[in-house]
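Q: Could you write out the predicted structure for this multi-component system? I'm mainly interested in how the pieces pack against one another.
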Amino acid sequence: MVTPHETWIDYFIIGVYFVFVLGIGAVLRNKMQTSEDYFLSGRSLPSWITGLAFLGANLGALEIMGMGAGAATYGIMQSHYYWIGAIPAMVFVALFMIPFYYASRVHSVPGFLRIRYNEATRGFNSVLFAIFMILLSGINMFAMALVFELLLGWSLTASILLSAGIVLAYVTLGGLSSSIYNEVLQFFLITLGLVPLVVFGLIDVGGLSGLKESIGDPQFFHVWANTGSTDNPFEVQWFYIVFGLGLVQSFGYWCTDFLVVQRALAAEDLAASQRTPLIAAFPKLLYGVLAIFPGLIALSILGPKIQTAAEANNAVPYAMAYYFPTGMLGFGLTALLAAFMSGMAGNITAFNTVWTYDLYKAYINRDASDRHYLNVGRIATVAGVLLSIATAYLALGFATIMNYVQVLHGMFLAPLFGTFLLGMFWRRTTGWGGFTGLVAGTGYGLITFIVAVKLQGFDVASGLGASMARAFWAWIVTLAVTIAVSLVTQPKPDNELRGLVWGLTEQKEGVEETWYKKPWVLAVTVLAITVALNIYFW
Amino acid sequence: MTEEHQTEEHHDYLEEERVPEHSGTNHSMAIGFYIAALILIYGVTMVLVGMLSAGTATEGDLGFNVNFWWGLVLVVSGCVILGLTLASPRRRAARNQQQ
């Protein structure tokens, strides 16, 4: 196995990163005057910043370790999680969802559910979302601990505690504003850390053809060619890739994961807000290569040594230790740590927002001062970090990072996407229709997962193909139950739905004069490149 | 929860959480400087490491001084980010307003 030779220079580089991260939190603390500043950065940011932060919030442990692990296990098919599984949804969010969110000025997705549906829907979703965020934050801690364990020889517990302490310090000090700073920063760090890995790796193995030759499995280099049957690395047909992953899982994630949506809402105006996901979509395309190829390169240099899922999880750090000398290695590690830190901080911040506004303020203490809610938010941060430590150990039970996250996405986000879709585009949807649909869909996901674990075993039940199919059917269940219940319950009067439902909303156009900043220009360009990439790697 | 209560809350909610468009804090400049500074520090450190030691051998030795050359890429990237931040139209607008 690869042995790293890290020295004090690597520790110095990692140390400088932490000094910066904690420093910016301390500096920003004085600027956080209102809870609006704390949570939405005062809605003052230009779209290039919110765009990169939008992507930065999405680039957690899943993207870096999980995608690399997936590529080492499934080959280039893993890029479906980018090209079909992200870009179309990001375009949809920009064109249709953001104007709604922005105009209704809600702090969170549960907030939106409350005015469109009812209190019960919001309460149910808030509780689920808070749990979801803690589970995701734990996987980031776990990934970080894996890197330390492998490359620095630290124990799992020590590195989990260290990362918990640092995230706690900087979220408490600076809030979302420092999260946005660090998300943009980590976008640059991760890009500058992964590009050399891919470039050096490809030089070493002799380009794409050399890579194909050294891996020796032609199926590993096709994204669509073998999906007519289940005889492909994912063991799933194109139908579930397109509709399970491309439609339900991906739209569910990008439309309703408040962690990313919040970044677009921090933009300075509606036009900038709408542009945010589109600007993020361009680097996201690139990550289909940057996050996938390190896994393939690791597979080619380590070959049959990558046999277990645990080794696949470590594909990217292995490849770094293999190609990067001391100094460069410190930089590469910093990039990985930055991704986990900001992923975790993003989860904790979202947890904090939902807890403060949608649970505490809604159900526990309704009329307190702004200062009081700010303090409640800070306490929630501490609690969130402590709970994440517990879920980090829970994540140990799962074989790979990718499977863990996809199981969660299928269960939490797919039903929610059904509820949103109907709520926004069908004015007949009723409050109780939305609630029962959401509960039924989530229940379906949870129960079928448990049943599958009992009948087929844990590994099959948590496989990527199984998650795609489960997400698709959970979504169908949500739609069916919501429609059925809506038809027999009393709809809301039209005047209560103004600004919430397509057709009852006077669309305030984001004014954008510059042609290359117009949403549809950006949308068409990014979709065209996506199609081209899918054909090239067909 | 009764229908009546819901409607009342509905109004509360809209009034309470509708907030002013801007709070007046400008973060965009600060983010540019923050990122440029860190990347420049890393770039310079790696160039120095590359010049002072030929670099410890790695298993995947590529036959060139990785630290020196990628450090140089970082220095250039840092300068570009710094340049774009300094030249940003927003900064000019802010400066014009001040004068």
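A: Regarding packing and overall arrangement: Chain B has four helices and no strands.
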